[in-house]
Amino acid sequence: MAVRFAYKGVEYPTALKLSKELPMLASVLVQWSEDADWFAANVASLCYDTDLYKPGSKVATRVVEHCRDSGHNTVLEHNVFSFVKKVPIFVARQDLRARHASFDERSLRYCRADDGSLVYYTPKELLQPGRESELNQWQYVHEQAIELYSRLTDEEILEGEKARSVLPVGIATTYTDTRNAWAWRHHSMKRLCLRAQDEIRLVRRQEVNQLIKVAPLLFGDLNMPCYMQNQGCPETKTCGVIELNETSRLAVAYERMLERKEKHPVE
């Protein structure tokens, strides 16, 4: 397993140090299966009695892509990937609904606010001209909640486990999120869809971009379901933004791109 606590070129000695430096809505890959594509190919080759020859060979590529696209999910599950995240609590709670995932979160039962780590999320809509009144109210509510939580805990008026109930769900939380390759694929397709909430879609796109770098075969095709072969839009009520082929449920623009590639393959 490879382990690295780094953000924007800066290395940190621990996950804790990294988490305190992350901005809101950031997610960083900190541990991953090395040579995940090659290992997945070997797992599959054992099943199919296939000679692979070497990493990156056409046979190895084809066997991984076959398992990835055909639903042979167990081949993917042998590789795991971990992220450290800093997101609003309301985003974290969407993550925590996921199956086949392990989480460890910064506990407001034991931690204190005196290190400045209690910050809150401000939606971009409130930063627009004409929304100054709503922005001021938003800031006031969050800052008052943080101040009260801090006083209740620092002065030992309440235990942290009770005092934390005063905090809004826009407050930041940090946690480690570990899933196997299949789980990351499954959950990413759901949260990259335009019908997913903006904030979690932004976080998931960051994660997918990082996963592609370390395992391009396992994750290189990940996108919105309507932009993936063998997938298509699963929603009864669509986003209304992307034109779909009513039969395949794939994005029309995506199918046109596939047709062009078929007619003019890259040599």
From TrEMBL:
Its EC number is 2.1.1.148. It comes from the Bacteria. GO terms for molecular function: flavin adenine dinucleotide binding; NADPH binding; thymidylate synthase (FAD) activity; thymidylate synthase activity. InterPro entries: Thymidylate_synthase_ThyX, Thymidylate_synthase_ThyX_sf. Pfam families: Thy1 (PF02511). One of its GO terms (biological process) is dTMP biosynthetic process. This is FAD-dependent thymidylate synthase. It comes from Tumebacillus algifaecis.
